[in-house]
Request: fold
Amino acid sequence: MTVTIGRENAIAVVTVENPPVNALSQALRQALVNAVAELDADAAVKAVVLICAGRTFIAGADVSEFGKPPQPPHLPDVVASIESAKKPWVAAIHGSALGGGLEVALGCAWRVAVPSASLGLPEVKLGIIPGAGGTIRLPRLIGPAAAVDLVTSGSPVSAKKARELGLVDAVLEGDLRTGAIAFAIDVAEKSSPPPISDRVVPAVEAGFWESAEKAVAAKAKREVAPLRALAALRKASETDFASAMEFERETFLELRGSAQAAALRHVFFAERAALRPPELAGITPRDIRSAAVIGGGTMGAGIVAALRDAGLPVVLIERDEVAVERGLVNVRAIFAGSVKRGRITQSVADERMAGIIGGDDYGLLGDTDLVIEAVFEDLAVKRAVFETLSSVCRADAVLATNTSYLDPGAISEGVSYPERFLGLHFFSPAQIMKLLEIVPAERTAPDVLATGFALARLLGKIPVRAGICDGFIGNRILKVTRAQAERLLLSGATPSTVDAAMRVFGLPMGPFEAQDLGGLDIAAFQRKAARERGETPFAPVADRLCAIERFGQKTGGGWYDYQSGDRAPKPSETVAKIIAEEAAGRPQRVWDDAAIADAVLLSMVNEATRILEERVALRAADIDLVKIHGYGFPRWRGGPMHYAEARSLAEVVAVLEGLAADGLAEPPCEALRRAAQAGRFSALAE
Ligand code: 3H9
Reply:
């Protein structure tokens, strides 16, 4: 870390260099305080520019310090010292001014930014609130309504929007350092605006805070930080600066040590680590400048849209002209939906469509860098596609299958240059869901695997490497979850009590509602295939529902009944009768929410541990990412593996043993027992 002070006549330029993102480590905080003192004492200096080296302005507090006791100088004091400096400080912002970085900028007398900069207070996304005056200075500068939006959403705004809000004083085109120095020369001649802490929060209309509270609570669901941030903003408008600072700091420190913050921090670092797996360090991915998708169904169309959103030209291949047209209609519908939701304009949608060539001629793929197959889940059909691709594509083109359940190794048999083949498992809707399971086959070359990760980065997705097994990581856990949920039905729980308990835990939907939404037929099809292989999947009730064609919402009934045109699930007498018949003779018990959640989640963890032990997943955090980004697991719980570790693996083992003794769950696997002895999953890799 270095902080250097340069001089341009009467302007001092303080340059922060603390790679990678200029986070406010203890050393940087100290250096900033020292810089204020040094420049205060220098009579030749009339104004100060605070600028950062590297890719960004200060991106915030150093999140890796959050697990440790705070060390002085504390950030609120650093900001206060800049604010009370004898010379006006000008924050010159490029990249991102986030969290503590924006708070430092709010201590400056002026803020200027390049057009590509973004500014925000993302603390709530880490389970905390701003801790260095952000909730107090921001409403004084831009008014309470805009401050509530910014702080409780955690979403950053562009430099242009920041200018409109009054958050920055100028947006500077051209070289930032030069522009900021010119700005500083100009303002050095003027009297500075009063420090933000001396200003008052503009008054709000009656009922403002109450309605903000309702809106924030509805969005935050079970996350605590957004409402606590709102409380701090309210305090800032109802009390003096010093009391508000005290309130904010107390809340910040309390939340910093909370379970939610620990979980969200874990996800923050896991997401970043996922993009750069250590086993691929130093391997250069192949160039991807063009792509093709085979199959224009729901999944194929979603993948086309995702590739176009990332700016790649795409060829969409279908088997005949009618199917090509249908595929293009599917893609157009996706972009139309984005226009309707205000995500893109019509002209952007038109431009996205213009970048797609649809056709039934594989000859279009002669120079394509990446081809993703997304046809029907049938081994013979997929093999035929890859046979054709082998003969038409360049030898170095990457060929990927988007299978969910088939063995990529079997699909790839007969592919020429098999080192260029891999599985890329997207989740539906592919243009939205963040998860991408990357599945190397036996002969996949390291640079092809690295290309999968580079593609994920390009598409803004979270990549997780998965080994080959039935369902890879996510769907394999899902299968066990469903079986466990069904086991509960045979011992006294009902679909509604199980679904309700999982919602209480924080999932957006319970396992039975989810099956009714997605359809019970796909899983039934997979169980049939598993039985043909000699396996014995457990789904006595689901099997009977499928036998009477209760496939879910689409057939008017599944685990629940549905009235036509109404998606609200109604408990079903038919289902209750089937459950009663299947449960006959089994011991029954009363289940509360916590016991249901334990039985379902800890069974999930048990299977996930096997997955880890078999190295189908390389890291427990990867499994957390799969569940969060592919299956709606609540982020603030940190994923099932973080949840289990935070709760204690020994306790997880004990609960599973208790359930298994009554025949209510699988017993803990040997690997889980071993991990429990060490208290962490990482011990399995040692
Ligand atoms: C806060 O400020 C609280 C205050 O209100 C109160 C204080 C009292 N700390 O994302 P990238 C690492 S809360 C430590 O791939 P990009 C990251 O792990 C904080 N490390 O880069 C990665 O490490 P590695 C509020 C951090 O260019 C490397 O930097 N601020 C931090 O795609 C590169 O990261 C935030 O929440 C950090 N704060 O995106 C900002 N940030 O190379 C969070 C990053 O070892 N950061 N790292 O894997 C971001 O949003 C993005 O990093 C940013 C750059 C947009 C800045």
The chain has a mean pLDDT of 95. Residues 20-21, 23, 55-56, 59-64, 75, 96, 98-100, 103, 122-123, 126, 130-132, 134, 269, 272, 276 surround (S)-3-Hydroxyhexanoyl-CoA (CB under 6 Å). The radius of gyration is 28 Å.
